[in-house]
Amino acid sequence: MKNVSSFFYRRIFVLPAIIIVAFALLQLSASSFKNPVVTAEIQVPEEIKQILERSCYDCHSNQSQFEWFDKIVPASYLVAHDVEVGRSRFNFSEWDSNPPAVQEVLLWEMVNAIEQEKMPLERYTWLHPDRKVSKAELITLKRYVNTLSGRHKIDTAKIKRSVIQPVQVTTNHPIALNGISYTPAYKNWKVISVTDKYDGGSMRVVYGNDIMIKAIKEKKLPFPDGAMMAKLVWGKQRVDKEGNTFPGNFQNVQLMIKDSKKYSSTEGWGFARFDGLELKPYGKTAAFEKNCINCHRLLVPQNDFVFNIPTKPIK
Amino acid sequence: MAPEYLYDAKNQQMISSSINSRNGTISLLYGKDETLSSKRYSEGANYTLVTWKQKPMPGWYGTNMNSAIYSVETMSVQPGTNHQLNLRYQFKTGPSFDVKNTIPSAKERINFILTQPKAVQP
């Protein structure tokens, strides 16, 4: 009887002791939380800065502030991961690594991510409830993005209608770095939406091929393989005296092609963009498509990652 | 999804789009492709001007897009008597057209269709 109970006591004390020691040893493996050098911090009005610092900087800057509980293994791995991903998307401490036009798009994207309650991440605000963005702060942010230059951009340049052809006219279509080829076939597709993208001063017409149109008519999501979209983007001319705005210069054409196997890493959509009348493939490396899908994935997962489909207004 | 917002322009192709911020509408002008390269006002020409009410794009604050159809205007140029051309114009209201809205003057609209420059498409 005595032997049994001593064995029992030994287990009661030894097991927790092992767990505690193991947990303590695990802490030694904790990733070090480092704040790299601030190279070019974002320049925004003070009231905007305060919101960004409190709600975004922990993951999107080199001025992250970590609480003691952020550093406990295994939770610390999740924190380190979120910070790494956050900084890679955009970093307020290295803000000039983005061209000015991209900076504006990122600020509009942030407003949308906050409005849709995708950001700050729920798992982050759960432990840091003071980092949530209030309704009043969102209104302040919205008011701010509406003061950015792209919001009021007018295309006053003379409209270029054709490219001066090089001597050797090629019949090959331009090909994006991820292998997607430009196609003029969209001209025979149907229009699925017409938009005024006032955040960047452009207007767009989006075409869908037969497979895309059929899926919309049948309200079928996700879109089937073979569905294709082409979005044509123009600048906006000055509003005339009747209140009309007409397309200015052609800016680019963007394609989305559904192939769930081939483009599985980007939610089944292949992206491409061809700039100017020369249709120059966009992007420096094939990784450009990551920029496309990051935003589509964050904001429109419910529409199979497509913004431009006809949808009922949200009440 | 709202497939009822789609408009099938059949064998016509897009000429241009336009935004009217005063009316909160957005439009597309379509034409029969063989007439696109010639003069707008020529025999056999057919045009359709589709106008939608604008609404904020769900999913992206910063963009307005077409919602329900406001009107569909059609115009055709047909041969008439004494080598004259006959111009037929029709204004049809769509689901988002309100009884309080006024139907614009035909003359104004014909002019709008005939003078709207073609959008540059590569």
TrEMBL record, chain A:
This is Heme-binding domain-containing protein. InterPro entries: Cytochrome_P460 (IPR032033), Cytochrome_P460_sp (IPR038142), Haem-bd (IPR025992). Pfam families: Cytochrome_P460 (PF16694), Haem_bd (PF14376). CDD domains: cyt_P460_Mc-like. Residues 20-149 form the Haem-binding domain.
